[in-house]
Amino acid sequence: MDQAALQRGNCNTCGQRRVLGSWLSKDASESVFRCCACLDEHGDNLDDKIEPADASATNWWACAEPPQDLQEVPEGLLAATPWHDTYGRQFLTVCDPEHCYFSGLGAERVWGAGKALAEYLSTWQPAGLQVVELGAGCGLPGIVLAKGGAFVTLTDVPWLLQMLEYNVAANFSPYDPLRPYVSPLRWGNDADAASVLQVIGRPPDLLIGADLVYREQDFDALLTSIETLAPRRALLAVQRRDVALEAFIKRVRFLGWSVFSQTIAPKVFLLEVQPPVHLKNAERARFNFQEAPEQRCQAAPAA
What we know:
Mean pLDDT: 84
Low-confidence stretches: 52-57, 282-296
Number of domains: 2
Shape: globular
Structural class: alpha/beta
């Protein structure tokens, strides 16, 4: 097994915590972590059900249930880190690097592509736009847009929503009219997408996401959610990891989507994707956000 491909987590099969292993996908909305020893014994086939040591909840390998209010979190259990954009504006990110309350890679930190996307969006003037962020994690890019006047809905899997709420609470007062809304959205789940659309009342002007493109088995579910939400514009910040970026571009084109790209930070690409139904109106859909001409996305190179 490639040592570089291994990750550290809590084994869903034997219950060992903070061990090396791999994430295995059960379906479009659920994954399990299996340690190297269990991979050797059981392989990566999840068809034969193996009861985990503790399967009481989807978020089972987090140590405890999070409190409802960020102020009730004991000191030292979560990491609150300031982040500044190029204008010197400060934003606070709240994450769970030790998985005290939240499982999954999205809880550990604001990843590189998320910071790059937040920096890129900090130069926009998005007042009045309806924005949806997919796989938001800490929600930094969406929070940056909300501070600029956009109406933002932050989405992620259900067990990360409380962490998203913590990040919103750290950056907005309870009565701020631009305080982002938090909603569950599992990729490929039509009911979740329909619920988001019902909340915002129409397809969003802009859909964003950062560090979403790293597991090929999730590509189709991600694209399904984008197509269901039908945004006027969809931007994904992607950190180049092995062949994941090339595989994603290849899959997008195979399905008849258009994809444009540009580099926004070292090894971070911004992809603008559009489903086939939008191709005839591509130029109209890619409307101007008062961005500099050099910020327009260019056609993505062939994979």
